[in-house]
Sequence to fold (245 residues):
Amino acid sequence: MGGQQAPAVGEPALAVGGGTAVLAPPMAVPLPDTVTFRSTRPPVNPRLLLLLVPLAAIAVAGAGYLGHGPLANQFVKWGLSEPRAVLLPAAWTPVIDPSDSFTADLPAGSTDVFASFDPSQPDAGGIVGERVEGLDGTFMEVAWTDLGFGPEGVRAFENEAGMRELAERYAATRLGGETTVVRDVTVPEGQGLDVVRVDGDDTIRTRFVLAGGRFYGLTTAGPDSGSRELDEAHQRMLASFDPKT
Fold:
């Protein structure tokens, strides 16, 4: 009728406006021969893994044996190492020196420092402050002196060369050891200088501050084996230091 032809066998038919339209069969989507979900980055060389894994294990085990890292407590439980000693008291407290010249935070148990700066030189002035003794020769101290110059005499050293001169005299007389690091620092109180000295197996960290006619020494010293604990303690003391100028 009307010249319409029936759809061939296998072809779908669709009625449109009373007529019949022929649709082409659906086309299959081509697929790749190989489907992968792996990264396109080059694979890790297995020989490198064989080297890195044992090295990492040795490093973690070594740190645990020395008292650091996640295996430290386990090594103690196994009896393979001793508990790592804490060199300073865990509790801290604000302190005021006997002359009411500064405040600072120190581990609990500090004692007053009030003595001649250099007993061999009566005209070297006195030293006043607070000191805490820890284990294995560890100590922390915040103290000041005028080195016998008086407040106005100390102010005459308020320059780079003067600070270094006072610091060397203070360190050689009061602290001992040999200087390894000297670094100028900016401090809100006045002029500052960081000095590190080494005395055998001990490291002596001192920040010198010249403020208000007083020369302050903020010192943390102890064995290198406790350097992390002592570094943190030293920074805590420096952050709390407040000279009353």
Observations:
- Residues 58 and 64 are 10 Å apart (CA to CA).
- Residues 46-77 form one domain.
- The chain has two domains: 46-77, 92-243.
- Residues 35-39 have pLDDT under 50 and may be disordered.
